[in-house]
Write a structure and sequence with these properties.
Blueprint: H1 2-23, H2 33-47, H3 56-66, H4 96-112, H5 114-130, H6 134-150, H7 152-156, H8 159-163, H9 171-186, H10 196-203, H11 209-220
Subcellular location: Nucleus
Pfam families: Cnd1 (PF12717)
Keywords: Cell cycle, Cell division, Mitosis, Nucleus
Length: about 220
């Protein structure tokens, strides 16, 4: 009860800070990037301890960090919409660093709300395939793997999308994907099946020696 009350208050404080910036046409022009990141982070962490305090408005505020501004946001208090609110994150005026932290916060909201998983998993999967911002895509990989621990059966369908990142053009994404998938394999949340083993084999010849050595170690275990 203590955590639920005080984390609920934190959620409200974060919403009150974020809403004017996100809802205003020019709100992003003079934003304090570090404060935005801190409030998004706090919102995500606090929401884990008070899922009942997280409403549709909270979700759409975070979503609006990652896409074009929602005109429906101010009055949203009812249940989540029945249809997927967006098919892919869209570029907006928010800095990449803020958007990357927005992904992490949205992922934390998904951890406590199974209905959000159904809505956002396809969006996450499309983002890692087609997104242009490395930091955002990198954090999507992290979130999808975290969600696999909580909702293994639902995320398992998207393991091929995640493992495809082992062949990404960006070394940081290849390395992050390798580490996250290895953890899932070692904890038996993911099985060696389908294209996963093949993609690990291809990663044996990764142009970054440290990544190639890591794959060799994983396959030798």
């Amino acid at each position: 009860a203590f955590l639920n009350q005080h984390c609920g208050e934190l959620v409200s404080v974060c919403e009150a800070y974020l809403a004017p910036i996100i809802l205003s046409e020019k709100g992003a022009q003079n934003l304090n990037e570090e404060l935005m990141v801190k409030h998004l982070h706090t919102l995500g962490v606090a929401s884990l301890h008070c899922p009942a305090k997280v409403g549709k408005r909270t979700v759409l505020l975070v979503e609006s960090v990652l896409t074009t501004r929602s005109e429906k946001l101010p009055g949203c208090q009812e249940e989540l919409p029945a249809s997927l609110p967006l098919s892919q994150f869209k570029a907006n005026s928010m800095p990449t660093k803020v958007r990357a932290h927005g992904v992490i916060t949205l992922g934390k909201l998904c951890l406590q709300h199974e209905d959000l998983i159904h809505k956002y998993l396809p969006v996450f999967a499309r983002e890692i395939e087609e997104g242009k911002e490395v930091a955002v895509r990198n954090n999507v990989v992290v979130i999808m793997c975290d969600l696999c621990v909580r909702y293994t059966n639902m995320v398992d369908h998207y393991i091929p999308n995640i493992s495809a990142c082992l062949g990404d053009n960006e070394a940081i994404i290849r390395e992050q994907t390798l580490i996250m998938l290895t953890n899932l394999l070692q904890d038996e949340f993911v099985k060696w099946k389908g294209s996963l083993f093949f993609r690990f084999m291809v990663a044996l010849v990764d142009p970054v020696p440290a990544i190639a050595r890591y794959v060799t170690m994983v396959l030798a275990q």
